[in-house]
Recover the amino acids of this structure.
């Protein structure tokens, strides 16, 4: 791997721990004003200091953040659909030139294995890797899952490994029973999405089980920014991922931070 690419990747995945807490805030690219992200800058700003990287679209990055944020950016560069239509019909919507101009530390592209436009999304990924490697830019493949697709180890290991075979430098997928099969056959670091909002205790349990079974961390969105206390929640997630805390200990931390911050 080239020096620049490795350097960028090391800004996201801490070389000392091999782990990362990424904050996913790109939901608006097909969901519009997602609950919790109606005013993205307001929600996200206080969380940035606890994240190893943040994953926005260029719109939110340019419109809602100061260029001095200091947190590495994993820039979403695929999209072009909405929740109202076929989700897998994605194209590359942000150029590599723009990613470089915005000083991204990596770019993110979704793939829909098993989706109607599977081929198109896999080619989007492969072409992005070709272009990104010219500039030393790492590529995160997001194994998006359509409504009808099972989130099991068989499907997620298929999608994750295909992403790595096409050249993705790291992959985002979902946690599932038997996650060792997904992480153990990926050949590149794998991070998990949090999925739909669940109680904080369950989200921390999910995070713990994922890192115990080989995940390099999380790229978590709704379970942080839709939490009853997002600032406390991201610190609890961080305790599990970067400090090796158990889910129980992290939940206690969440509760105590929430109390201190005056939240009921
Ligand atoms: C959608 C994405 C989202 O950023 C991500 O999946 C959302 O994270 P979470 O499930 O934790 O809200 O990449 O394809």
């Amino acid at each position: 791997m080239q020096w620049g690419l490795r350097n960028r990747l090391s800004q996201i995945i801490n070389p000392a721990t091999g782990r990362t807490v990424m904050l996913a805030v790109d939901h608006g690219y097909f969901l519009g004003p997602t609950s919790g992200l109606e005013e993205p800058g307001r929600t996200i700003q206080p969380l940035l200091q606890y994240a190893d990287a943040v994953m926005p679209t260029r719109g939110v990055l340019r419109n809602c953040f100061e260029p001095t944020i200091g947190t590495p950016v994993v820039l979403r560069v695929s999209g072009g659909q909405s929740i109202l239509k076929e989700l897998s019909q994605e194209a590359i919507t942000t150029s590599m030139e723009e990613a470089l101009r915005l000083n991204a530390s990596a770019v993110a592209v979704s793939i829909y294995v098993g989706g109607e436009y599977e081929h198109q999304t896999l080619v989007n990924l492969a072409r992005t890797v070709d272009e990104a490697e010219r500039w030393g830019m790492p590529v995160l493949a997001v194994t998006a899952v359509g409504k009808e697709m099972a989130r099991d180890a068989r499907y997620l290991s298929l999608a994750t490994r295909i992403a790595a075979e096409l050249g993705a430098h790291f992959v985002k997928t979902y946690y599932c029973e038997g996650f060792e099969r997904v992480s153990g056959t990926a050949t590149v670091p794998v991070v998990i999405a949090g999925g739909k909002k669940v109680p904080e205790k369950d989200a921390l349990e999910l995070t713990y089980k994922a890192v115990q079974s080989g995940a390099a961390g999380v790229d978590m969105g709704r379970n942080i920014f839709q939490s009853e206390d997002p600032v406390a929640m991201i610190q609890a997630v961080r305790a599990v991922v970067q400090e090796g805390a158990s889910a129980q200990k992290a939940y206690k931390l969440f509760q105590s931070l929430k109390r201190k911050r005056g939240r009921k």
